[in-house]
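Input record (one chain):
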Amino acid sequence: MSILGYNGGCVVAMRGKDCVAIATDHRFGVRAQTISTDFEKVFQLNPHLFLGLVGLQTDILTVKDRLTFRKNLYEVKENRLMSPERFSAMLTSFLYERRFGPYFVEPVIAGLHPKTYEPYICNMDLLGNSNTPEDFAVAGTCAEQLFGMCETLWKPDLEPNQLFEVIAQSMINAFDRDAGSGWGASVYIIEKDKITVKRIKTRMD
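The corresponding structure, as predicted from the sequence alone:
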């Protein structure tokens, strides 16, 4: 098993019409053993910026803290909110600095630009090589299953409630086919004027 799949978990982000969604499962395990069923892997960094991290649990917590520090420093110096594009560039640089002893995390970024409210999603490998798709970004132990479900269900210009249905169904069906992820899910729908958080009950086995 890859070290990236040692603790399990998955994250998926999706673009909609003037909105984005990011979702994660709740499982934290050690290989096949489940340790906890309430481990959050998605973090809100500012009103319209969310970061999802999957991989080794210790590295997830370390990377989240260090990125939050750098993001706060930027916002204090610049006196403005950090845009998702700017955060993505910072994260690429942060991960590449550690290329000879990398953090074992796969980041997924979802957000809206602070001024234009343009939707943005991005995912990276552990060395910071970024990918900014127009539809969806996935990471985690059930990435292959997520790709299949997302490609089947996603359509351009989904409204927020449609986007929730698509991302929720994609998550549930993907991690039902993967023992490394699951135990419920959280979905964050990010719009210009509000953020909706929904918890999904799923199979608990």
